[in-house]
Amino acid sequence: MILWSALLAALVGWVLVGYSEHGLILGGIVGALVGWAGRRMIRMEVATATAPLQAQIDLLATRLHERGESMPAPVPVPAPASAPAEPVVAPVDPFPDEEEPGRMVGFDPAVWRAPPGTPAPAPATPAPVEPAPAAPAEPGLVEAAIARARDWLLGGNTIVRLGLVVLFVGLSFLASYAAAAGLFPIEFRLAVVAAIGVALLVTGFRTRTGRPGFGLALQGGGVAILYLTLFAAAKLYDTVPVGAAFALMIVVCAAGCALALLQRSQALALTAFAGGFAVPLLLSDGTGDVVGLFAYYTLLNLAILFIAGRRSWRLLNLLGFVATFGVMTLWEAASYQPADFAAGQVFLIVWVLIYVATGMMQARATPGRFGNVVDTTLSFGPALAGFGLQVGLVHDRPFGSAFAALGFAALYLGIAAFTMHRRRDELRVMNETMLAIGIGFVTLAVPLALGARWTSAVWALEGAGAVWVGMRQARWMPRLFGLLLQSIAALLCLIALNVAPLAGAGFVGPVLIALALGITAWWLRTPLPHSGSRFARGYARIEAVLGDPAFLVAFGFWWLAWAVEAGRYLPPVERGGMPVPVFAGATRALLMMLAYVGSAWGAQAIGRRLRWPVAGWPARATLIALALGFVAERAAGSHVLSAPDWAIWAVSIALHLHMLHRIDRDGDAAGRQPMVRAAHAGGVWLGGALAIDSVLFVLEQTGLSTRGAWEEAALLTTVAAILAGLTRWTRGALQGRGTPRWPLARHEADYGWYAALPVAALLVPAMLLVALFSSGSADPLPYVPLLNPADLSVALALATLEWWRRAIGAANLPNPGAAALGGRAARGMIAWLAFVAVNTVWLRIAHHLLGVAWNPGALLSSFVVQTGLAILWTLVALALMVVAHRRMRRTLWLIGAALLGLTVVKLLLIDMNGSGGGARIVAFIVVGLLMLVVGYLAPLPPRPQAVKGEGR
Hints:
By secondary structure, this protein is mostly helical. Helices cover 71% and strands 1% of the residues. The longest helix is centred in the last third of the chain and has 30 residues, at 744-773.
């Protein structure tokens, strides 16, 4: 766990600090601390989980104590011949015939046999189980060192060990006193001290069987005395040549190792090897013989490897590892020269192999609950320390660090592959550890060798592989690592994104990330197995909601790859020039739009085939992509009918409609969701925008956009045609006639009401603008009243509004707004619009045929215009009142009468004050005659008897 956290944090730090080595190192340190804290929490969790088992063990011990019995003798199980270690004991059930409450799951009485002749005990009430005490916190480094020193001093034969300490002090005082008094030559004094060391060795060896603790203590003291004596003789007093002292120290080390193996004493071996590793440091003459130093250390490490195959002495292995790699670290930091590369490289490889093998032997000889136990230091130490030293050797060579990481990855992955085929179950933990280290080095090799873009792609694939491994092994931590690694890869890809050719990292990187995330999302669509621990259950709750977001991110990167390709640039033709885009601005935007629509179409097809609902989600948002593409196209100054825009639009719209048809054809609730219904209605609005853009393009191509009233009339006619088409298409479905086909079979209201309502709302102000502000010029054609572009488009818009209003009123939609279209307010609105349209027809006639200027001031101040308006209003009132009289509609007649009264008021306030005598005379005479006609032809209809008060 510490390695995973360190690697992940190192990668994050490397990215965040601008791919600097400082960020890599700092992130690794922080990650290691976090991993250590996490491991400590997990161990506490395991201790808490095993507390009930400990309570059962305490219960068994309590019962034995109450019966006055002792625990049965352990039955030794012979160790394998290859590793004669201490005997492993198998427990014996003290109560084989009882059915205990709280008995452990998996308890097999056939395996636990009671001694022959043991009577069956009487049933007894079990004693209450006391809660297990909380697991003690792990001691720190300082506390652990103090505890070890205390155990050495106070454990075993304390008197002997204190005596050895006192003896060392006494011998030191003796040598110092003899030297000060000049009693004996220095050679004699050193010989006496050495003789005492030999005597301790001989005495300890002779007492090894009768008093083993005493004998081992004396032998250890003798070895230490000999080491110190040889050191003093060679370095302090120069009485023995350094070479001879070096050889004698090797002999002492070998003798100590032989005695340790013979007596199975790890302490004696530690003393011998500690002196052996200290010999070159103590007797160094400063010549810097690197090959000799490393060859000597290699011999010592081979001896440790030999002992590791026969004894599981962890402290001895750690001593050799720390001493070897510590000395090489000091040498590399202080004395390394490029000429020493070959020697350092060879010995570093040998030492890494030695301690990897040592760690494997340690794991093979250490059984545990879930297989053989792995020593963390011996498993991760050679990898981390060896890689650090290797980087120091090759940091100045091209891709040296990357090849170093690949070399370590090949070593650990090869070991994992080899051991998985031979002792898979027994060495499960070690296999997984080797696999994790190998994957970690592969992960590290990528950024050291490749750029950020390729790094993100490889990390994404590696993260998917980690998720797969965690899924197969029902382990949550590899899956979490894989998801985090893919997240970092995605972020790194976005940071380093650029526009590259089709086979470049700018395209391939997002594609590989999309594939990795897509596969991961497919795995996460269902809950994955886990170990059932508290952390695993908590992670499973988070993992259960990550499948859909993972797919959406994968889809986003897939689209991003094609979008980047659409926005690709070519290198400049001339030096110092600007890159040239492959596609024009509008075409580039439309290709990005097509990439999204096509990708959504493909994802929907995959989702329908695999029954994967989230794969169809992007298809519901294609309308947004189409709308953004249209906005980008217009911003670039292009049109829908431009080439090749029209082809892209044709393919995109066809795919969009096909996706909507798929959604409705599936017959599920997706077709009724608001987003899908909005896609149907919004498609009408987008289609209207495309139609208007096409009309503008045609007007620009024909030159009519700047001549007469063709542009505004064409736009108004286009909007009216859209509303008319919707009314004609949806009228039968809204009124329940016939069997509508797709899409009206499920979306008749979406098209007939929700899509048409904004079109109608747009048509009203558009019609008013054309009617009030368009002069109706038909250039290059002559002006014809009622047959000019403005009058015809306004009449078409007015008729379309009334047609749509009646169709909605007859549909009986369950909507208050639709019901209001059949009321008096809606009819009055249409009548008011018609009245405004009729008035503007006269204004355009006055402008074109009578020469009145087309501006509000000139039109309102013209006596001819005012006279015409008075006569027009009277004619309109006459028509209303005649129709009302014939149809016996009192309300309509009163409206006409009100308009007639308004005309009279206008005559008195406006026309009478005018200075134009002829126009004023005509106005009054014509209006008066028309009023007489009204009184004769259309008197007030009688009040209906069935409904009192109608029209009031």
